[in-house]
Every structure is written in C-alpha cells, then in structure tokens.
Design a protein that fits this description.
It holds the Pfam family FeS_assembly_P. InterPro entries: Fe-S_Maturation_MIP18 (IPR052339), FSCA_dom_sf (IPR034904), MIP18-like (IPR002744). This is Iron-sulfur cluster assembly protein. The protein has helices at about 10-15, 60-70, 95-100; strands at about 35-40, 45-50, 80-85. The protein has about 100 residues and is α+β, with helices and mostly antiparallel strands.
Length: about 100
C-alpha cells in the first residue's frame, strides 16, 4: 500500500508498529497496548494506551516515542497520549502474531 492510499489511521497504526517495549521484542500495537486511536477535528489524534506493567521503568520513553512518531505524520495537527491501566493489560490482548513470537501459543 503506498503512502497516498493509506488512511490516516493506517499511517498511525504503521508508526505504532515501530514502537517497542524494550523488554519485549514485539511492538506495542501487536502487544495490544494501544486501546484506542481517535481522530478528531483538524486531525487531532487521541491515543489511549497502557503498559505491560504499571511500574514500567521506561513508561515515559515509550509515551514520548509514541507522541513524537505520531506527531511526525503528515496531516497530524496535535497528539494527546493518555496512559491508562483500566483495564489492566494481559497477554490475551496480544495479536496472534505476537503470541506466536513470544511462544504463548
């Protein structure tokens, strides 16, 4: 799919697949850490996400990376990344591909 035929949501999902939890060799999108992507007026993007553990020492780094990469997408005017632990993340939220990669299947 070329850059021109991809929707804004596709492009957001694509960059989220380049963000990794440093302790797990799978991207945050396939891990199921991204709960919601909202595209609002003037292409303001709202992302609700979680982490694999509330005490994650690199939480700030992951959130900053999500913000910077989504903000860099052409047509995005603003980004608001919200961290939540409700519902708490569990391995059932991972894509089938991620579960295979990590040996959970």
């Amino acid at each position: 799919m070329s850059e021109n035929t991809m929707t804004l949501r596709d492009r957001i999902e694509e960059v989220l697949r380049t963000v990794y939890d440093p302790e797990i060799p799978v991207n945050i999108f396939e891990l199921g850490l991204v709960y919601e992507i909202r595209i609002g007026d003037n292409n303001r993007i709202g992302i609700i996400m979680t982490l694999t553990a509330p005490g994650c020492p690199v939480a700030g780094d992951i959130i900053r990376e999500v913000d910077e990469k989504v903000r860099a997408i052409e047509d995005v005017s603003d980004v608001d990344v919200t961290l939540t632990f409700d519902p708490p993340w569990n391995k059932e939220m991972m894509s089938e591909e991620a579960r295979l990669e990590l040996g959970f299947m």
